[in-house]
Amino acid sequence: MSEASPLARPGVRWVLAALILVVAATVALWPREDSGSTETRKTSQQESGVSAAERAAAGLTACPVAAPGTSGSGPLAGLTVGCLADGTRADLAAALAGKPALLNLWAYWCGPCATELPHLQEFAQRAGSALTVLTVHSDPDEAKALARLAGLGITLPGVSDPAAAVRGAVGAPPVLPVSVLLRADGSVASVEVRTFADVTDIADTVAAKLGITV
Fold first, then answer.
1. Is 87 among the domain residues?
2. How far apart are CA 65 and CA 56, in angstroms?
3. How many other C-beta atoms can be found within 10 angstroms of the C-beta atom of residue 76?
4. Global pTM?
């Protein structure tokens, strides 16, 4: 008669069963994060290269947010951009809907843009709620955009447009700075391909093109 296999012995079977239970319990209790939320955070940071702390340190004003059920119109309809203040993405036309706007297309490396931005901030403070003044960074490097704005003391709301889609949508040439004046219905009133000289220049242009005196 042949000898029974070691695995067939009752004592060995009980030991193996106990080991399996211990391993299963360890795996079940092992701490882990929700994979979906972790991957979302990693993807967001990898796409922009900017952390939430860096955005907060820049101190930018929050971007305009679309009212519930609002849909944008005009050439910017359906164009999604990221907010420099917090990294959230939204339909630009929907976020601006219902109020005239001045969009300033700029980039961190643009000298004339740096000269113009303080005038735009002063004008925005003067204009108050009469219209939205929004900066549009037309370059992929958000970190340098935030650093440039902080260095200039600019706290205007701003969005990131790495592929210069806004410029293409309004038919502006590939130069910076460019300012786009939008009516409340999203249509383009004017595309200013130049650097504003001062606050008075901005105010006069807004009055002439949008009929808003501030």
1. yes
2. 18
3. 26
4. 0.79
